[in-house]
Recover the amino acids of this structure.
């Protein structure tokens, strides 16, 4: 496990948006998405998304530093939803965690768990009653250990 004295988790500043975007890009590559399948303007798309989410969806990001070097990040926001939200907030106000990424040499030390925990605390503080994320195969154990349950989401690839 990670030594507490070396680890520092903190809220990311807006000038770290490019770093968060690069981690998001790297996450896709680490999940075997070929570079030619990622749009060439991925950085602009991600930065515009973050900007919109900061303004409209209470987006907040967190970074993990080890010995003063940022080695991981995670973002979270109120879920924009996939359908009209007709439910009262006290029943369901969903948060979404995305882009949890830790540099390969620092994996397996509890950093992703710490980043996710920070995102969970923030989402709870803004009144979220449920949190959703999509886990990579290597991330599933991290999220299961935090109490996340696999759901009934079903998927069909049409290509």
């Amino acid at each position: 496990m990670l030594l507490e004295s070396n680890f520092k988790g903190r809220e990311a500043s807006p000038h770290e948006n490019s770093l968060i975007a690069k981690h998001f890009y790297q996450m896709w590559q680490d999940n075997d998405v070929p570079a030619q399948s990622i749009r060439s303007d991925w950085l602009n798309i991600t930065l515009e998304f973050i900007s919109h989410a900061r303004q409209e969806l209470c987006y907040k990001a967190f970074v993990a530093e080890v010995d003063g070097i940022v080695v991981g990040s995670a973002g979270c926001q109120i879920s924009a939803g996939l359908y009209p939200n007709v439910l009262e907030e006290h029943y369901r106000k969903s948060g979404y965690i995305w882009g949890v990424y830790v540099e390969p040499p620092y994996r397996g030390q509890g950093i992703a768990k710490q980043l996710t925990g920070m995102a969970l605390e923030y989402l709870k503080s803004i009144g979220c009653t449920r949190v959703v994320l999509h886990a990579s195969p290597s991330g599933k154990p991290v999220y299961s250990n935090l109490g996340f349950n696999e759901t009934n989401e079903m998927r069909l690839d049409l290509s």
Remarks:
- The chain has a mean pLDDT of 92.
